[in-house]
Amino acid sequence: MNNKVILPLASQINIAISDKQISFLLDKLQKISYLEGKIENQGLDIAPNVLAISLLEREGIDSSIIEGTQTNHEEMYYDISEGINDKYSWEVRNLINLYKSSFRDFNDEIMDFTIEDLQALHRDLYKRDIDNFETTYDPIEVIKSVKPGKIIVNDSKPNWIGPVGKGIEQASLILLKPSQKKKYLEDLFELVRSNKGVKSLSTVIIFHPIFESIHPFADGNGRIGRLMLVNLFKYLKLTNYNWIFISDFWKNNKEEYIRELRKVQTTNSWNDWICFFVKSLSETVDMVYNKLNSILDLFIGYSRNNLSQAEKLLLKHFFKYPILNKAKTIAYLKEKNGIANATAYRAFDKITNLLNVSNDGNVYRFKKMIDILSS
Question: Which InterPro entries does the protein's record reference (predicted)?
Answer without folding.
Answer: Fido, Fido-like_dom_sf, Fido_containing
